[in-house]
């Protein structure tokens, strides 16, 4: 007995996670908190639950690269949200934020923000490679 849609990709799960990640990272103001961590965890679970690498023909190199790249980029955004709070905690609130008399919440968030780009890029490359290694290749059709 075969399963219907075995190996099918649920694009809605992937793109809804991407949209939520972009909105959360670009619209948020101030310090990252436990809620950003919870949102990232929920999005990561959504991707894990619904995303499956689709079968690709071995000669369709571009399709395989674009699928791995899009998965890595979106999953990297989710990793950036998931790690925003820990990254900010590791960086801490810089002394210049306290000395300048500015709002420390805004200053601490602004200091952590560039590091999230590094987190995204690292996660995107690593997850693209992981997806590439797990991608299913269709066997060549038999000639009769």
Helix proportion range: over 70%
Q: Mean of residue pLDDT?
A: 75
- Tell me the overall shape: elongated
- Ends distance: 25 Å
* Regions with little confidence, pLDDT below 50 for 5+ residues: none
Total strands: the figure is: 0
Strand share of the residues? under 5%
| Radius of gyration over C-alpha positions, nearest whole angstrom | 19 Å
Q: Pairing-aware structural class of the strands and helices? A: mainly alpha
Largest sheet: none
* Count of DSSP-assigned helices: 5
Q: Give the H and E element order.
A: HHHHH
Structural account:
This protein is mainly α and 144 residues long. It is built from 5 helices and no strands. The protein has helices at residues 11-27, 34-50, 61-91, 95-100, 104-134. The longest helix has 31 residues, at 61-91. The chain is elongated and about 80 Å long.
């Amino acid at each position: 007995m075969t399963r219907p849609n075995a190996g099918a990709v649920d694009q809605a799960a992937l793109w809804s996670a991407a949209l939520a990640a972009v909105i959360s990272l670009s619209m948020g103001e101030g310090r990252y908190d436990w809620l950003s961590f919870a949102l990232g965890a929920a999005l990561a679970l959504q991707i894990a639950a619904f995303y499956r690498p689709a079968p690709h023909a071995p000669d369709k190199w571009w399709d395989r690269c674009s699928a791995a790249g899009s998965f890595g980029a979106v999953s990297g955004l989710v990793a950036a949200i998931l790690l925003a709070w820990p990254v900010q905690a590791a960086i801490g609130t810089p002394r210049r934020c306290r000395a300048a008399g500015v709002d420390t919440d805004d200053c601490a968030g602004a200091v952590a923000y560039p590091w999230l780009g590094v987190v995204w890029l690292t996660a995107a490359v690593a997850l693209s490679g992981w997806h590439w290694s797990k991608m299913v290749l269709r066997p060549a059709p038999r000639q009769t």
